[in-house]
Amino acid sequence: MQAADPAVRDLFGAMAYGQLVAFSQLAGEARKAPTLREGLALSRLAASELANAELLLQRLEELGFAPEEAMEPFVGPVDAFHERTAPADWAESLVKAYVGEGIAVDFFREISAYVDADSRELVQRVATGTARTEFVVGAVRAAIDRDPRLAGRLALWGRRLMGEALNQAQRVAADRDALASLLVGDGLRPGADLVEVSRMLTRITEAHTRRMDALGLAP
Amino acid sequence: MQAADPAVRDLFGAMAYGQLVAFSQLAGEARKAPTLREGLALSRLAASELANAELLLQRLEELGFAPEEAMEPFVGPVDAFHERTAPADWAESLVKAYVGEGIAVDFFREISAYVDADSRELVQRVATGTARTEFVVGAVRAAIDRDPRLAGRLALWGRRLMGEALNQAQRVAADRDALASLLVGDGLRPGADLVEVSRMLTRITEAHTRRMDALGLAP
Question: Which of A81, A163, B135, B194 has its CA 20 to 30 A from that of B91?
């Protein structure tokens, strides 16, 4: 009964809604870009989020799940994340695009280790479609070169993004049994043990640190 | 020397920038949708605007024009249009998506009658990619059914969109000789005569009236 796995519904629903909101948020911020070139780059990144969401929504339908119903439980946590991390300026928008997207991708990729092979393959495909964030690295480094005081504020901002992402992930884990069962197990699945969960969080934190480093920011 | 026609550069630059901003604006408003389904529909409409802009930017490059430079002169008028027509709520967003997009498409299609065949063909292709606005008709009619008082406000809103579009079109015509020469002629082109310009405005106004009618709004 893989096709009707509620954990897959939750995983795809959470990812799809997250990408839909990222699309809307990044596209909206593209208008604040200091140059047309940067605005276009962020617009393209936004469009790739929607394209990824479409793949997940299509798969949800193929699996017999209503896409809107699958996304609905994640509206609260995802919206809360964005309300608490509204970028104050263009540099914060860029860091959020890069760091926020990176955390989300890492997290979903880790989770996908516990679902069936077809679902995992789709998560991997969607997750690697985000190489477009690379332009952000150069843009953030250039902004810090122009105004070195930015580095301190953006470093704090990166930590805040990570903190809020973990907050909302915990909220989801508490509310969504099917999704949580992937990690902690239930009558039907072994799940990961606590050591493995702890290792997973370490891997996600390390990847975050590498991204902050790439941006020239203290993690 | 069709390939280096500055009127084509202006036409494509204006359209592309208009679509880039429409992408950003519509995508940003998708988050305010009352349902996930409507938000997704508006997101898809937004994405089609970016896809159309990409076609124009690519053609500009093929013609030897720098895309950013071609768009730059239209930043002022397009941004001014959007600043003056910021939707107050979801119903206004929908009407703007449908009516604003319709006016822009009609206008650029009319102008394209005066450029070379390849450029005209591209404008037609980009202009017909907007059938996605059709979902708006049902959504606006449903909103008016729920709250009939909306009809009066939205009718005024539609008139204001048309008025602001004409204002900014006049501003562009006054500032951009190459584009204006398509209509009024110069040493190299005959242009349209005044009778034809007047007919063109009548056609655009009539199409606007039909769209308002489709939405159930007094024009």
Answer: A81
